[in-house]
Amino acid sequence: MKYHVEFDIDLRRNSYKGLYIALEGIDGSGKTTQLQKLYNYFQKRGRGVIKTREPRKQEGIIGELIQKILHGKTQIPPVAFQYLFSADREMHHEELVIPSLQAGKVVISDRCFWSAIPYGLLDRKSQLDENTIEYLLAAQSILSMYHQFIVPDNTFYLDIPLDVAIQRIDKTSEEKEIYEDKEKLEKTIKGYQWLLREFPKEFTIIDATKRVEEVTEEIVEVIKSSSHQVKRGE
Fold this sequence. Notes:
The protein is α/β, with parallel strands linked by helices. The protein has a single domain (27-231), classed as Rossmann fold (3-Layer(aba) Sandwich), CATH 3.40.50. Helix content is 49%, strand content 11%. It contains nine helices and five strands, in the order E-H-E-H-H-E-H-H-E-H-H-E-H-H. It has a five-stranded parallel beta sheet with strand order 2-3-1-4-5, with helices on both faces. Helix 1 crosses helix 8, helix 2 packs across helix 3 and helix 3 (78-102) packs antiparallel against helix 4 (116-124).
């Protein structure tokens, strides 16, 4: 027997005093660099600012386990791995993101819940189709009636060609993660492209091939002109 379930639900918006900014994109797109640049920008202007990332590194039992899996040191079923991300994200929001926003601080995150779609597609080993993505939107608490994560006020997608990203990854001295190969990066890009088409108002696309300073300036200009900044009296 088949059961039909249907409902309409909106994204959960930030109702707190603080400003929530997220940087999205494939590995090698420059998210970590821009995270630090934006952190410095707000600090210089005397704003309370927090920089963070998802998944968190070495934060509690879940964070430590995620890092071991990402670096191929232990294995669990793919679907279970995606739920670990969601569990870590929930703790991250309750312990850091929401309290910081309530206090009026700027929270800048290297990735947010949106990344659950392109990376969740990899672990499902299925084709990029509407049904698969809709399942992920609900399962990963993006469009869920049980619980939802707060949507960033500004989400920037750092757009970069695959070959450039691979060159950057190869130049780093950091230990490679399981998602950092050409085939997986190609599929991740397709997942992000779907998000950009379906949720165009939620993302600002930034050309990440430009000089670091140019990318930062472009991001800052968008933030300064954002209605969220006006709302908060910036």
